[in-house]
Amino acid sequence: MIANRHETVPDRVRALLWRDGGLGLLDQRLLPQRLEYLWLSHPAEVADAIRRMVVRGAPAIGITAAYGVVLAARAAYARSGERWREELGTDLDALRAARPTAVNLAWALRRMEARCGRQSGDPEPVLLAEAQAIHAEDIAANRRMGELGAAFLGAGSRAMTHCNAGSLATGGFGTALGVIRSAWAGRALTKVYAAETRPWLQGARLTAWELREDGVPATLLADGAAADLMRRGLIDWVIVGADRIAANGDVANKIGTYGLALAARAHGVRFMVAAPVSTIDLETPDGGAIPIEERPAEELLALGGQRVAPEGIDVWNPVFDITPAALIDVLVTERGVLEAPGRLGIAALCQAA
Ligand code: MRU
After folding, report:
1. Is the C-beta atom of 171 inside 6 A of ligand 1?
2. For the structural domain made of 143-351, what CATH number should be given?
3. DSSP letter string over 142-193?
4. Sign of CA dihedral 10, 11, 12, 18
5. Is the CB of 104 under 6 A from ligand 1?
6. From the CA of 58, how far away is ligand 1's center (Å)?
7. Which atom of ligand 1 lies closest to the CA of 241?
8. Half-sphere exposure (Cβ direction) of 176: Cα atoms closer than 13 Å
C-alpha cells in the first residue's frame, strides 16, 4: 500500500543546505520560536556548530561533517596548494571530536578521507560531490526505511516517538519520523505521540514542530507519562532512531530510550528502531563499549534561560543510554528489516550489498 507513494509524503523541513559554496545549518537551538539558518564557510565553525547542537541527530551530524571536510580542504588548498592534505589533520580531528556517541560522524569522515587521496589540483569538486552523495543517499535511505517500517504497522496503529529522529536529525525525511510520516500518509497510523525529551526538549521543540510543519497531528507528553500511556493500552508501537548500533544489536539513543523499551516490554507494546546501516558499528562489540556523551550541567539547571534548580546542586547529564538488543522487536534499515535483531542478523545485513 505504501510503496511508491512516498513522493506524496510531506517533508518540508531541511536541517542543512549547501548553497553558494557555504553550509547553511538551521539553528536548532532556536526552534520553534525562530527559524534561522547559520551560514558557515570555515571548518572550525562547523565543528563548533556540531558541539553546540546548532545541528544534531546522528545522520545530520555526519552529513554536516562531510561538508566540513569540503570547507577544510578548500581552506588548506588556498593556503598550501598541492600540499593541502598535510594540513587537513587538525580540522578532521576537531570534527571527529565534536560529539562522541553518534557513529555516523566518524563514518562520514572516513568516507570523505578515502576521497582525499585520489586527485591532484583543486580538491573541492570531488569532495563536494562526495558530501552531496552522502547527503542524497541519506534521504533515499530514509525514504526506504519509511516504506519498510510503515509496512510493519497494522491499520489503526498508535505510535510514540522519543527525541527527534526526523528531517531535522537527518539529510531529510527522518528515520523514526520517516516511518511515522510514511505510515501516516498510508493511513496506517491513527495517533502519534511525541515525548518531550528532557533535558534538551528535542521532542517538544523539534519533533512537535516538524510534525506540525508537515501536517501530521501529534500529541506531546512528558517523558514521565509514557509508561502510564502504555499501561492504559493507548499505544501499539514505540518508534525511535539510533546514534550507534553495536555488533550485537544493542542501541545507543537519546537518554530515556532504555526506560521506554523496558516499559514497552512490560506492557506488550512493540519497540522499533529505524536507522541507516551507517549507524551500525561492527567494531563496537556491544552497548557497554559505546562512549556515552555527558553534556554541561546548564542543560539541566536552566530551562529557556531561566534557572530551575538551586545553586550548588550536583548534576549528572548523560545524553544517551543503551537499549539492549533483547528489548528491540524490529530493527529497520534501508537494506532490510530484522525482527529480534542480534549479532548474526546484523552481520548479514552489513555484508549485503
Ligand atoms: O543529542 P541529539 O539530539 O543529537 O540526539 C539525537 C538522537 O538521539 C536521535 O534519536 C538519533 O540521533 C537518531 S536521529 C535520526
Report:
1. no
2. 3.40.50.10470
3. HHHHHHHHHTTSPTTEEEEE-S--SGGGSSSS-SHHHHHHHHHHTT-EEEEE
4. negative
5. no
6. 5
7. 13
8. 31
Q: Is 248 exposed, middle or buried (0-12, 13-18, 19+ CB in 10 A)?
A: buried
Amino acid 92: pLDDT: 96
Domain regions of the chain by residue span: 16-139, 143-351
pLDDT of residue 118: 67
Say what the pLDDT of residue 119 is. Answer: 78
Q: Which of 243, 250, 281, 329 is catalytic?
A: 243
Question: In the prediction, which pLDDT does 353 show?
Answer: 67
How far apart are the CA of 165 and the centre of ligand 1, in A? 6
**What dotted CATH number matches 16-139?**
1.20.120.420
Beta-bridged to residue 261, according to DSSP, are none
Q: Give the span between the Cα atoms of 113 and 92, in whole angstroms.
A: 9
Ligand 1 binding pocket mutation candidate from 201, 253, 257, 272 (most atoms within 8 A of CB): 253
Rounded distance between C-alpha atoms, residue 280 and residue 62, angstroms: 13
Residues of the chain whose pLDDT is less than 70?
A: 1-7, 118, 353
Report the C-alpha gap between 103 and 96 in whole angstroms. 10
Q: Answer yes or no: is the C-beta of 242 below 6 A from any ligand 1 atom.
A: yes
Question: Which pLDDT score is estimated for 2?
Answer: 38
Residue 169 near ligand 1, beta carbon < 6 Å: yes
| 223 catalytically annotated | no
pLDDT at residue number 143: 97
pLDDT, tens only, 84-141 = 999 999 999 999 999 999 999 999 999 999 999 867 899 999 999 999 999 999 999 9
Give the whole-angstrom CA distance, residue 159 versus residue 332: 15
Q: Looking at ligand 1, which atom is closest to the CA of residue 176?
A: 15
Q: Is 26 in the pocket of ligand 1 (CB under 6 A)?
A: no
**Is 319 close to ligand 1, i.e. is its CB under 6 Å away?**
yes
Atom of ligand 1 nearest to the CA of 275: 15
What is the Rg, in whole angstroms, of the alpha carbon atoms belonging to the chain?
20
